[in-house]
Amino acid sequence: MSNENTLDLHYVHECFQKSLKENDDVVIDAYIDGYNELVKFLNLIGTVFSFVSSDVKSKIKVMEKLKSGDDAIYYESFKKMMKYEKESSLYEKNGFVSGSRTMLRLHRGLDFIRLFLKRISGTEEDMNTCTTCQGSYNETLAEFHPWYIRKAATLAMHALPSRQDLLKKIFGSEDELTEAMAVLPQTLQSCDEVYQRVHQLYTDFDFHGLP
Question: pTM here?
Answer without folding.
Answer: 0.93
